[in-house]
Amino acid sequence: MIVTGLSLETLSILVGSVVALRALQLFLDFRRLLANIHHLPGHRTILSSSTVLGRLLPPTPLLILGHDHFWLLKHGPFAERGLDIISAVACWPKAMGSMLIADVNVIKDIVWSRGERFPKPLGQYTVLTFFGENIIASEGNEWKRYRKVVAPGFSEKNKRLVWDATTQIMLDLFDTMWAGQEEVVVNHSVDLTFPDDVIPLGHQLTFKDALRTVTQDLTLTILVPRWAMGLTKSFRRARLAFDELHRYLTEMIHERQESKDEEDNNDLLSSLVSANDNENLSKGEVRLSDSELIGKLQFQTLAEHDYITTAHALSFAFALLALHPDKQEEMYQHIKHVLSDGRIPTYDDMPSLTYSSAVFNEALRMFPPVCAVPKSSAEDTTFTLTDVNGTLKTVVVPKGLDLILDVPGLHYNPKYWEDPFAFKPERFLGDWNRDAFLAFSGGYRGCAGRKFAETEGAAVLTILISQYIISIKDEPQFAGETYEQRKARVLDARSMLTLAPTRLPLVFRRRT
Ligand code: HEM
């Protein structure tokens, strides 16, 4: 017994010593990292938010920032420290640090220097490569190749097509599902932008359901190994959605490969498929398999991009207009003025429909779908900027450090946006600071689909507001709430991969 007791004691001393040594090592690494960034003020936590655990845990002071912190804290942490660059350093699972940036000139410097100085930290993009490599999660020559392949898809001709298709979809919605209804009630605005459609033969989910589930359950799909995906109902649902999406994409590729009709072949997917045709490949380029094509496709043609980012931005625009009836009326009067004969707007009207574009931009400023754009520093360097007192400061950046372009930090920075929490679409009429608007990132790696999203946003808002008045749905359980409480409730948002409204119940009343 004594022997066992001794060995137990020895064992606990051993374990205790290992733990203490590890803790000491982490602490020393943490101190070294702080010294490397010259103790730039900022967040200090035990756990890093970029780990799997960090993604799941709620924000807890000193323990974890929470992956949502960019959205939740906005410009607050910069204002607190009086400087538009702050640091975020954590010590577990290893000493990890990054700099968060909300200064226009520093951001311009980063996005306009070629990939070699401030490349994307590709390790942080693994979450986006669940179907394979793709344009967003690539760098250097690989990225150049993708960008060359997708470029023809983003033509002026296709922008016109986006406008025509969007207006047609909206008019069809009014003439079919909404026909004969004075008021249309939508319990969550995202359901409007994801209208249900029929499940095609050979499928178990609609394309939209599969897409929505895959993006919502992305963390699950990545964390849970394939063999365990049959264990619970929600795992099985995620697995089914993932398989269905893969099936849909394969079918879409085959359709494009088989279609000889020019009209069917001028979208992004078609340009990828056609660039992969044997006769269009440059010498030495290898033809991709369907699976590889799916990987290359997934981000730019669907998932977050085309679809969800724009849909969410529109949902927030609806909510903001509903909460500000005076601005909604101003927008309506503006549309009536541009389309004085009551005709349906065409693509050529877009430059005149400035108020619609301004509302879309203001929604994107206040609710940027992508809250953090990661970069890294490939060399030891410095940034120079002025602090809150106008004093010039130099920030030392060691090679290899992660840099985060903090989009809400920039969009709510009062230095660039007067009264940043107020919904003021008119700030986007006339002259505005384009460098302080980062919803589409910027520079060489800015969003390739920006013009498409802007076209779709302006078209949806114009058609909708010209025929309907948007308001927030009255619900008995919220009868006693004040305007501010209602605003906070309906504008509540969650940032997983992109920012989405939590629950946004709306009413669309037909104009008389
Ligand atoms: C409101 C809607 C949209 C927003 C807010 C948005 C935002 C962004 C952001 C922030 C990035 C940079 C991501 C990073 O560096 O990690 C990006 C990249 C990209 N976006 Fe979008 N996007 C939108 C819509 C679209 C649409 C409609 C398309 C395609 C039709 C698209 C295609 C792309 C592509 C291809 C890239 C990668 C560009 C590159 O790395 O060279 N986006 N987008």
CA-based gyration radius: 25 Å
Q: If you consult CATH, what is the topology of the domain at 158-195 and 315-370 and 439-512?
A: Cytochrome p450
By DSSP, the count of extended strands is: 12
Figure out the total of helices. Answer: 19
Average pLDDT over all residues: 85
CATH architecture of the domain at 158-195 and 315-370 and 439-512: Orthogonal Bundle
Low-confidence stretches: 299-304
Q: In what order do the strands lie side by side in the largest sheet?
A: 1-2-3-8-5
Which CATH C-level class of the domain at 158-195 and 315-370 and 439-512 is it? Mainly Alpha
Helical content class? 40-55%
Fraction in beta strands: 5-15%
Q: Judging from the principal axes of the Cα atoms, what is the shape?
A: globular
CATH level-4 homologous superfamily of the domain at 158-195 and 315-370 and 439-512: Cytochrome P450
How far from one another are the termini?
91 Å
Major sheet, described briefly?
5 strands, mixed
